[in-house]
Write a structure and sequence with these properties.
alpha+beta, 3 helices, 26% strand
Length: 102
């Protein structure tokens, strides 16, 4: 599948240090600490909307796959993984550990 096992143990959500608005269907993100502006495409904007509340990678992938038409599921999951990692590196999202106790 291409997604690291550790992703299963994480929850992703929007950072409270980011202001956002939807303009012409695209999310415009402003990092309030760094002053950076990011404009997301339609898929990125949908993911941004999904993570208003904490979501697992599987939830995000399932919601994305059900919202858009894709041919290569593994490629899409890999793209989502890369997108979330980039968003984390830019401090636009918060990643929390998920309680996976049995």
């Amino acid at each position: 599948m291409g997604v690291v096992v550790d992703e299963i143990k994480k929850l992703f959500m929007q950072s409270d240090k980011v202001a956002s608005r939807i303009i012409d269907g695209n999310a415009v993100l402003v990092d309030t600490e760094g002053g950076y502006v990011n404009v997301l495409n339609d898929v990125g904007s949908a993911i941004w909307d999904f993570i208003q509340t904490p979501r697992s990678f599987e939830e995000i992938a399932d919601m994305t796959l059900s919202s858009f038409e894709y041919e290569g599921v593994d490629d899409v999951r890999s793209d989502i993984d890369a997108f979330l990692k980039e968003m984390e590196e830019c401090h636009l999202i918060v990643v929390q550990s998920k309680d996976v106790s049995c």
